[in-house]
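SEQUENCE-TO-STRUCTURE ENTRY
===========================
Question of interest: how does this chain fold, as expressed in backbone structure tokens?
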Amino acid sequence: MDNKTAARHKIHIWKGTGKGAGRVTLIPYLPKGKPKAAIIVCPGGSYFWLDKKTEGHGVGKWLSSNGIAAFVLRYRVAGAWSFFSGDRFLLPHDQHPCMITDLQRAIQLVRENAAEYGYPANKVGVMGFSAGGHLAMTSAMQSDTDYLAMSGIETKVSLRPDFVVPIYPVVTLVHPQYTHKRSRRGLLGEWDKHNKEICHSLSLEKNIPDDCPPTFLMNCKDDPIVKYQNSELLAEALAQKNIQYTYIQYNTGGHGFGATPHKTTSEAIAWCNEFLEWLNRTILLP
């Protein structure tokens, strides 16, 4: 499916609800045969913008070519203008909890429509990259918090993803050495980025739930954007809670490459096959 074809199949997830934002969409990338699972894809972009091409379209095509129904989520972010202008000092707008509310709505719709698309309703995962990895993991961390109900949306399906896949994710918002400050600012705005209580509540390594779903985690030690220790903190937290997880750390590969071979090293792009093997033995076969 090319970009133009995908655009024609956009699902406006808040249409008809009077809630959310009209620009929030899910773009389905469907395999030719019956899908064996569904994955909601959250592109990165520091919660200010979205990498729609590499971590959206590219990942959707790769997943669908491997028999997985991919739904690329274009969730609300602060916007490039807010990054440069700092206008949210005066007019707070798209920041937490807009992003997790959009993702919960996406989980609701993808699960409710499982029969229509043909994948099992109990095999719906979330994959995210960079800040999108933080968002994906937040959906597991805060699945007991019904943000849809706060928006007046009733749901009868579980909002807990069946598995999560944070790829070179932003993790901590409180560790001074490792925090990706741009993502923290994009997520929380100019004022709440200094709120210690909120930052602690959204730091992944501080809030892993006992029922956290199986997790596949990957990053690279030479990541120039998000310090690699973010993923190490998350892996340690998962281990302490005895959560089923796999953590792969590559020496080289950088950041922001999604599933695109020419944007990373031959070492790091191996994560694609590693993930597919993990999905098969951990989620599909059981």
Notes: The chain has eleven helices and eight strands. The CA atoms of residues 85 and 94 lie 14 Å apart. The longest helix spans residues 98-112.
